Amino acid sequence: MLIKSIELTEINLPLVHFFETSFGRTYERRIILVRVEDADGAEGWGEITCGESPGYSDEWTDSAWVTAEKILAPMVAGQEVAAAADVWGLMKWARGHRMAKSGIETACWDLEAKKLGVPLWRHLGGVNQVIECGVSIGIQDTIPQLLEKIRVELEAGYKRIKIKISPSWDYDVIKAVRAEFGDILLMGDANSAYTLADIDKLKSLDEFDLMMLEQPLPHDDIIDHAKLQREITTPVCLDEPIKSPEDARKAIELGSGKIINLKNGRVGGHTQSKMIEQICREAKMPVWCGGMLESGIGRAHNIAISTLAGYTMPGDVSASKRYWHEDIISPEVEVSPEGTITAPEGPGIGFEIEIDRIKRGSTRSTLI
């Protein structure tokens, strides 16, 4: 596969509803799309999933644009590879910048699957065409507002509810959710908002029988998480600190948690995700696919990777309409009344790219 060119396009997509975490509130997304083209004119699409500011990750939209344009894309454009799995190696010289690398790498996987005429999820080694879906609900202005949003999502069929929490939005909020909805599959995502000094508060959440407590402690920690996991019964789910297969191995050996949220962008793309999934599966550590408020292109890649055997818990892969007035793929991602998504049978990501919608939302573009 000869990668002839790489095109970067930034688009603006306003969210249907604001999304708030401990990092702040988001009203619209600036998303970098990646289109790769080979010598035969075939193309593949990926998405750089970082946020607009370096809150969740040290990558952010403007830094990722420069890194992809000036450093990473020139490493790949013009190169011939035996397989998409080799693209990661072309960019290995550049340290970090995994979200920017993922946008390029996943686009090459889409390209390769299309050239082979097979669905991307099968090409990746997926075994579960139907995946269970959960939703992530941000911090709301009031508890009644949160309860209403949860009610809407449960009625839509979603299998699991994740709510964002923080030291000022935790115990009383979760208690109200349990009182209203009983024993639904419920988890709390702290996005690194706590420290070990909050251990008594975190212990108090054990009474609510949460599926997991996601990333309660600092973003780069696996030591204190191991201490916390020994003190609480709620399973700790690791997110931000797991950026590589080695990170996953070390966290498992330390007992830093019992579950891993495996985000394609955070670890650098499908090749790295597959390696981490295998390590976790062999260690009997469940993984699930987290979300980064992706457009339909990033969401399609999340669907594909979620079909691997190790993804045994409902992920944050939900319907397009939850986020966008109009997505940039066709058909838009839909969730069944049973709370599932069926990976498409079409070649590559299995969705058509709506070029006109991308052009309408485009703010800049460059060809490498």
Gyration radius, in Å: 20 Å
Structural class computed from helices and strand pairing: alpha/beta
Shape: globular
CATH architecture of the largest domain: Alpha-Beta Barrel
Please, how many domains? 2
Note the run of SSEs as H and E: EEEHHHHEEHEHEHEHEHEHHEHEEEHE
Supply the number of helical segments.
13
Low-confidence stretches: none
Strand content range: 15-25%
Q: How many strand segments? A: 15
Widest sheet, order of strands: 5-6-7-8-9-10-11
The N- to C-terminal Cα distance equals 17 Å
The CATH superfamily of the largest domain turns out to be: Enolase-like C-terminal domain
Kindly report the average pLDDT value: 95
Helix fraction bin: 25-40%
What is the CATH top level name of the largest domain?
Answer: Alpha Beta
According to CATH, the fold-level topology of the largest domain is TIM Barrel
Record the SSE blueprint.
Blueprint (H helix, E strand, L loop, with lengths): L2 E19 L2 E15 L4 E6 L12 H16 L10 H4 L7 H19 L3 H4 L6 E3 L1 E4 L5 H13 L4 E5 L6 H11 L4 E4 L9 H6 L8 E2 L8 H9 L4 E3 L6 H10 L4 E3 L2 H4 L2 H13 L4 E2 L7 H10 L23 E2 L9 E3 L9 E2 L1 H7 E6 L1
Parallel strand pairs: 5-6, 6-7, 7-8, 8-9, 9-10, 10-11
Antiparallel strand pairs: 1-2, 1-15, 2-3, 4-13, 12-14
Helix pairs in contact: 1-3, 5-6, 9-11
In short:
With 368 residues, this protein is an alpha/beta fold.
